[in-house]
């Protein structure tokens, strides 16, 4: 079921309701416009994403779409996928954490100012997807696997290709290939199970 409003998102994540309400109150006290994108609350300036909030199993978070550009307010920022995520940064909150609006407002104000100045980190244009020979051979042997693979997003395709290519030993490549075949056929990404943690 697709979430259509921030209220609905908060109700859907009722174990984090108090924290999400507190974060929302801070965000609503800015000039940012509230909307839903990708099923989560996002706050925009002139149609550009500035901040989002999300609830996960073990924490909730404020996401800064160009958080890597924050220079004055950085102590609480966390890169969820070090080495992969270029622009996004988050501030995580666990149940025992106190949400302090006076601190968060500084981060949000700097993010808004950066957006107003047009500062952003452009996505890196990725090179052509290179399939390892083991994956190509698997596609020749199983056309259904290839069809399922081609229906995945480019990012998921790249994750699988890299997963096989990065293995050093042939035995590891083979065992990884066997592991991912059912995942590909189910339309899953390699790291999907970590998306809601």
TrEMBL record:
Record-linked InterPro entries: YdeI_bac, YdhG-like
Domain called YdhG-like: residue spans: 16-112
Protein name in UniProt: DUF1801 domain-containing protein
Native source species: Salegentibacter maritimus
